[in-house]
Hints:
Elements: E1 2-6, E2 18-23, H1 28-40, E3 45-48, E4 54-55, E5 61-67, E6 74-76, E7 80-84, H2 89-98, E8 101-102, H3 114-119, E9 123-124, E10 127-128, E11 133-140, E12 145-149, E13 155-156, E14 159-160, E15 166-174, E16 176-177, H4 180-197, H5 217-223, E17 230-231, E18 234-236, E19 244-246, H6 252-270, E20 279-280
Parallel strand pairs: 2-5, 3-5, 4-20
Antiparallel strand pairs: 1-2, 6-7, 7-15, 8-16, 9-10, 11-12, 11-15, 13-14, 17-18, 18-19
Amino acid sequence: MEKNYPLYLLSTWKIGGPAETVYWPETVEDLSSVWHRAQEEGIPVRLIGKGSNVLFPDGGLPGITLVTTALRGICWGDYTVKVEAGYTLARLAQEAGERGWSGLGFARGIPGSVGGAVMMNAGAHGGEMASSILRVKTLWADGSIKQLERTDFDLGYRYCSLRGQAWILEVELKFQPGDRNQILQTMKENLSKRKANQPLQEPNAGSVFRNPPGDSAGRLIEAAGWKGKSIGGAKVSEKHANFIVNTGEAKSEDVLALIQTIISDVQDKYGITLQTEVESILTGNRGIKEDR
C-alpha cells in the first residue's frame, strides 16, 4: 500500500496527480476484503487495470485506488483459459499463439489488462474480445461477487453493459485449434503495422475516439486539420490523428480541452459527433467514461 502515490506512474499517458492511497491486491479475496472495508467506512474506492486507456485528474484522487496488476492467476484448459483481471492481454495472446490456439491473435499489440479489455470489448485487426468470452467473475458496487455467463451481459463495439455496474475479476476464454506458425506470423505482422502507424514511443492511451459507422475517426480528425496540433502539452500525433500524445508536460485539462475542441470542430465540419474510447476518472462524467 502506498500513500500519495503519483497517478502518472499508473497511466500510459503519464498524466495524473497523487492518489491518496494505492493498493495492489494479490488475490481476489484480498481485493474483496479491502473493497468491503472501504464501503463500510464510506471511503471512495475504485478499480483500475494497467492504465492504458485512462485519463487521471491533475489534482489526484481521494480514497483508495485498487490496481489489479498483481492479479495474474492463470489456468489453461482444453482450448480454454481462466485468467485473472490483471494479466497482460498481449502476453496472453502470445502464449495462446505459442500453443497454436486461435482467437486472440488480434490482441498481441494491445497493451492493457485482460479485465480492462473485457470491460471495453477491446479489439483490433477485425477481432474483438466478445468472440472469445465464455464467462466472467465480477465485483459489484455493493461488494458482491457474481459469475456471469456470456449471455448474461451485452458486448458491442467498444461497449460492455457491465461498465458502471461491475468490475471484472476473472474471465474464461475459449479458443480454436489453429496453425501455430501462421498465428505467430500474423501476430508479428500486426505488431509491425502497429509500430509503423502508431506513436508507440510517446506517452499515449491508444485510440482516443471510436470509429463512427462507415468511417475512421483518424481520417476525420486529419481532414479537419488537427494532425500535429497541440493544446498545452497534449498533441494530436503526427503519425496517427486518432492518438493524443503527451509531449512531456501535458495535464489532464490539456487533453480534455483538445478532445472537446476536436469533437466540436469535426461536428461543425462534417456533422459527425465523435465518441470517446478513452476513459476518465475526473468528475464521473460518462461522456468520457470512468474507471479502467
